[in-house]
Amino acid sequence: MSIRKIVIYDTTLRDGAQAEGVSFSAVSKVQVAKRLDEFGIAYIEGGFAASNPKDMEFFRLIKNEPLKHAKVAAFGSTRRAHVASEEDKGLAALLEADAPVCTIFGKSWLLHVTEVLQTQPEENLAMIADSVRFLKAHGKEVIYDAEHFFDGYKDNPDYAMASLKAAADAGADCLVLCETNGGALPHEVARITAAVVQAVDVPVGIHTHNDGELGVANALAAIQAGAQHVQGTINGIGERVGNCNLTSVIPNLMLKMGCRCLEKDENLKQLRALSLCVSEQANMRPFTKQAFVGDSAFAHKAGMHVDGVRKVSRSFEHISPEAVGNNRRILISELSGASNVFLKAIEMGLDIDRKSPEVREVLKQLEQMEKDGYEYESADASFQMLIKKVLKKHRSFFELQSFSVTVDKQGGSSSCCSAATVKLCIQDEFVSANGTGDGPVDALNHALREALVRFYPAVARVSLVDYSVRILDPEEATAAKTRVLIESTDGEKMWGTVGVSENIIEASWEALVDSVEYKLFLEEEKAIRK
């Protein structure tokens, strides 16, 4: 049986950029486009040609970046009503973008034709045909996006099909059925897509939105019904609640439906890295609960589940994490059993027996620490420090002599100034260092790293990316116990640490120390491997 080839059309840089809080610079758009090309995406939609100068700048810049595989598409609309194609500014902008592919949208729903465009049904069909014909005459590959197609088909199937016929007869290379409002159900999408596939001789595509949390399901239903082309965005970003998520569609197609989507099948292992790249360029925190590529996608917490994964991984994992470039994570909490601790120790490279007294001791310590308010699900590095202490494999890289933090405010309109001083004993030498920051914890962090960097240069690469505080017993008011969670990175790896105290600065210090010590242990292990 032959493998179906499904064309992936990425619109992260256009439809994805319409998401609330997302803004790509022209340079970041180029970086994303290069990663998409390396991944093996067939089409990259760069932007709305007539929309803004930044999108036009992207089309200019991308011409200096020879892509290995992908074709760049410029997006626009059909000509305006009662305006000749040769005089239409939108079509002129598409030609100015100088992309090999032009994707234009037109109306399929009579409601939009009469109430939004406020024109006649016949004129709308002429707008579609004239625009496709004009772009084809200029040597462009033309993809026609039939906007609101499913709503239009349910309202008047004859007119919706006539709008597709107008594009096909004018030479469109692909007809994309757009589920623009995001409200259709998979069985509706499958039924209507199958009817279109049977009626036309042009390849059919699908473009879905996620307003009903069905963007991916609707796309897969359309492909199962005969669509050969799917549009979406990396991480599902897009206007309103988002678009069809390609980081879910692609692995489902390749691993579950036997389709070929990428230039090379092995590129699927780059999926998580691509997801993280787009989040970084869009200045968004990665969504940890995202299927396939999220941090939690293969995270196991309950002891029984962990034991099952240890014995037969597929008993609790629908695919291998490595297939999409992800990793299995074992979470530690009050639900943990010996299997969790054992596998976490194995992750750390420790030689330990699952039934050893040490494992029971770690569980005992874990139970006590959690009673005291510690929480390790998001503080993996702190838990690793705990294991090392129980197994007597922990050593202190420095000893605290003292620290002090001051917050100074001069006058009601002035900003607060935070400063910190730390005094440490490092390798039998007493060291004092100062630091300033946006707040007391930031100042303390800078002072700690300033004291350590001469002895341990690697700490210079450590930075804090997140800091959160939770009050554990609010009934105690200002004397309440506080849990501090810190997320750190060295630019390559991220880790979390935790501290607990009635004093928020002391809790923060504890989490800071774990973060730095974790990094130094990593550097030691790296040196040993060399």
CATH homology superfamily of the largest domain:
Aldolase class I
Order of strands side by side in the largest beta sheet? 2-3-4-5-6-7-8-9
Low-confidence regions? none
- The radius of gyration over CA amounts to 28 Å
Q: How many domain units?
A: 3
Span of the ends, CA to CA: 48 Å
- Tally the beta strands: 18
Percent in helix: 25-40%
Q: How is this structure best described in words?
A:
With 530 residues, this protein is of the alpha/beta class. It folds into three domains: 4-281, Alpha-Beta Barrel (TIM Barrel); 299-371, no CATH class; 399-529, Double Stranded RNA Binding Domain, CATH 3.30.160. It has 17 helices and 18 strands. The chain has helices at 26-39, 53-62, 89-97, 110-116, 121-137, 149-155, 157-169, 186-199, 215-224, 246-256, 271-281, 303-311, 338-347, 357-371, 380-390, 440-452, 504-529, and strands at 4-5, 7-10, 43-48, 71-77, 101-107, 141-147, 174-179, 204-208, 229-232, 259-260, 299-300, 329-330, 399-408, 417-426, 429-437, 463-471, 482-489, 494-501. The strands form five sheets. It has an eight-stranded parallel barrel, surrounded by nine helices. A three-stranded antiparallel sheet has the order 13-14-15. α12 packs across α13 (338-347). The radius of gyration is 28 Å and the shape is elongated. The protein starts with a strand and ends with a helix.
